[in-house]
Write a structure and sequence with these properties.
The complex is a heterodimer of chains A (371) and B (246).
Chain A lengths: L6 H28 L6 H5 L1 H7 L10 H13 L6 H13 L5 H12 L6 H8 L6 H9 L7 H6 L2 E3 L5 E3 L8 H31 L2 H30 L6 H23 L3 H9 L4 H29 L3 H6 L5 H10 L4 H26 L5
Antiparallel strand pairs in A: 1-2
Chain B lengths: L1 H22 L6 H32 L4 H10 L2 H4 L2 H15 L1 H26 L3 H9 L4 H29 L3 H6 L7 H10 L4 H14 L1 H20 L11
Classes of the chains: A mainly alpha (371), B mainly alpha (246).
Chain lengths: 371, 246
């Protein structure tokens, strides 16, 4: 449809939509994801130590004033309203670089409050971690405005004191497995949807309008029911923790995302075109390649990409149907159960990047722009 | 043969519905109807917001060059790409000062605005260039063309999209379950708790009943969308060919 174009009027009419997306999604999401790199926990509890370590060159152990500053910070920490929790948060953050500090920091804080000996000696007596330059380097690395420790931790990586990045040993690596599991499940659901969705789309496309509408409505219903109904219905059918149940549930729900656009695309092939091509001697393969495939390709790749993205974002259905929770469930638990927004945001980053990449790839393979 | 090939897909679609129907039972709880009504109220709020921003956007799309229009249409997919749990975390500060219901309405409207805008745009795109030219050559001013030709088509598309958007907004779980107060959640957001507590046969039957009730809104939404689209097709003489794109 062509019409007289007035870009300014168009922009004004689109402004509410863009404001909704900006204010309701882009800005809140950006603010949440900033937690992946923002450093707040350590500087909140160790401000004097951070100021002193700014002058430290990172070689050997720092001067005595750093010991005094750390002792003073840890002595004052319990006097804060949320002192114990704040020390625990700082310790959890420092453990992403120097695991020993997860226990060393709270333990030192507890012991310091009951001693009156000089700070350096008191610290060394409280925990041997303070004899190691890596502990001090970890504190210095966690007191800037931003750092990559959460992001590295979310990928089971750790930055060594010399700056090199190393993979965690298998016994400590806990974050990459849920990501890979989630992507595997999304890939399986996508493949299943392609396998089952193509014949379904062909059936809808070839059916009389009344039957096509009924089939489309049936296809749409599990999707519109939402994730809770999906989890409940498959749980009722198969019970909990059955292998493959979460993939089947996702495929049944997201089938319309692939099958319906594909059916519309196949219905869009002019009815006489294929017959005319056959009359002119084109083989069945050539008819498919030159007529059917160009119509079906955008819907097929676009739909497959959408199934992958929607399945990868699920949390509830896998948690009830599968023994191993999805990454989205882990992201939620980091934030709501452990109170670790940094790790939660950092775990979201690779997932969102992969999903954005999947959408871009699907659009590229689809080879035709919407609109 | 086509039916035979599509049989596995149809079985996959029908299996969960059969699972619910086969297990349904249990005693009726008044809390279920109240939760259904609460969820419907929040979803209606989300749909109203989605229509309020989606309807002008559809008219705005007409004025954009094709590449820019493609970009705007692609941005509608953004809320669907973000996993619901991540969306709930992103909206948590908004729930902090505006309340869980406001955050749920906002999340619902982000999801519902895509079907509203896309259905409206598809309906508007069906207005042929010939129709517009004929109207203009008959002396109709742009305002009259908008009122008589474009808006009626747009209204039907928006209404069908709003019906589907309502179902999508009503099916949300993560945002209301994480951000809503326990007494303010709709039926889908209560289902996870019912599933966790489903120990005996009575509780399992209760889960099935709740799931069946939660399906009520999507069923009505699909029926409404079909009625709206078919009604529009009848008025424009397309009754025998409603599903074929033009």
């Amino acid at each position: 449809m062509r019409s007289s174009r007035r870009p300014l009027r168009g922009a004004l009419l689109l402004a509410p939509l863009l404001l909704l997306l900006l204010g309701g999604l882009v800005l809140p999401l950006g603010r949440f994801l900033w937690n992946a790199v923002a450093e707040r926990d350590v500087i909140a509890i160790l401000p004097r130590t951070a100021a002193t370590l700014a002058a430290w060159d990172g070689t050997g152990l720092p001067e005595d004033d750093a010991y005094a500053a750390l002792a003073e910070d840890l002595r004052l920490a319990p006097m804060r309203e949320d002192g114990t929790a704040a020390v625990a948060r700082a310790a959890r953050r420092l453990a992403e670089t120097a695991p020993e500090l997860r226990t060393a920091l709270p333990e030192t804080a507890r012991r310091l409050s009951a001693t009156a000996i000089p700070p350096a000696a008191a610290l060394l007596l409280a925990h041997p971690a303070w004899e190691r330059p890596a502990s001090w380097a970890a504190i210095r690395g966690a007191t800037g405005p931003a750092a990559s420790a959460h992001l590295l931790a979310a990928l089971d990586l750790r930055q060594a004191p010399d700056g090199s990045v190393r993979a965690l040993p298998a016994t400590e690596a806990t974050h990459r497995a849920p990501l890979l599991r989630t992507l595997r499940r999304a890939g399986a659901a996508m493949a299943l949807c392609v396998l089952l969705g193509v014949p379904l789309a062909a059936l809808i496309a070839a059916s009389a309008p009344g039957i096509a509408v009924a089939l489309a409505a049936l296809t749409l219903l599990p999707f519109l029911g939402g994730e809770a109904v999906r989890a409940a219905s498959w749980w009722l059918l198969l019970g909990d923790h059955r292998p493959g149940a979460a993939t089947l549930a996702a495929a049944s729900s997201f089938l319309p995302v692939l099958a319906l656009p594909l059916a519309v695309a196949l219905r869009g092939v002019p009815p006489g075109l294929r017959a005319a091509a056959r009359v002119h001697g084109a083989s069945a393969w050539r008819v498919f390649r030159r007529i059917t495939w160009p119509h079906a390709r955008p819907a097929l790749f676009g739909g497959a990409g959408a199934v992958f993205v929607l399945t990868a974002g699920e949390s509830l259905a896998p948690s009830f149907l599968s023994a191993a929770p999805a990454l989205a469930e882990r992201i939620a638990r980091h934030a709501w159960v452990a109170g670790d927004l940094g790790l939660s945001a950092a775990s979201s980053m690779p997932l969102l990047l992969i999903l954005a990449g999947a959408v871009a790839l699907a659009r590229l393979l689809a080879g035709r722009r919407a609109g | 043969m086509r039916w035979l090939l599509a049989l596995p897909a149809l079985a996959l679609l029908l299996a969960p519905l059969a699972g619910i129907v086969a297990a349904v039972g249990g005693t009726w709880q008044s809390g279920l109807a109240a939760a259904l009504a609460r969820g419907l109220g929040v979803a209606a709020g989300a749909t109203v917001l989605a229509v309020a921003v989606g309807a002008p956007a559809v008219l705005g799309l007409r004025h954009l060059p094709s590449p820019l229009r493609a970009v705007v249409l692609a941005t509608l997919a953004l809320p669907w790409i973000v996993p619901p749990e991540v969306l709930a975390l992103a909206l948590a500060p908004i729930a902090g000062f505006a309340g869980g219901a406001a955050a749920t309405i906002l999340a619902g409207s982000l999801l519902a605005v895509a079907p509203v805008t896309l259905a409206g745009w598809l309906a508007l795109r069906r207005v042929g260039e010939g129709e517009l030219r004929a109207a203009a050559s008959a002396g109709a001013l742009p305002g009259l063309i908008l009122r008589r030709l474009l808006l009626p088509r747009l209204a039907r598309g928006i209404a069908a999209g709003a019906a589907l958007g309502l179902a999508v907004a009503a099916g949300q779980v993560a945002v209301p379950a994480r951000l809503g107060a326990p007494g303010s959640r709709g039926l889908p957001a209560l289902l996870p708790d019912l599933l966790r507590d489903a120990g005996g046969p009575e509780a399992v039957a209760g889960v099935a009943l709740a799931a069946l009730l939660a399906l009520l809104i999507p069923v009505l939404a699909v029926v409404a969308a079909i009625v709206i689209v078919r009604g529009g097709a009848e008025r424009s003489g397309l009754v025998s060919d409603t599903a074929r794109p033009r």
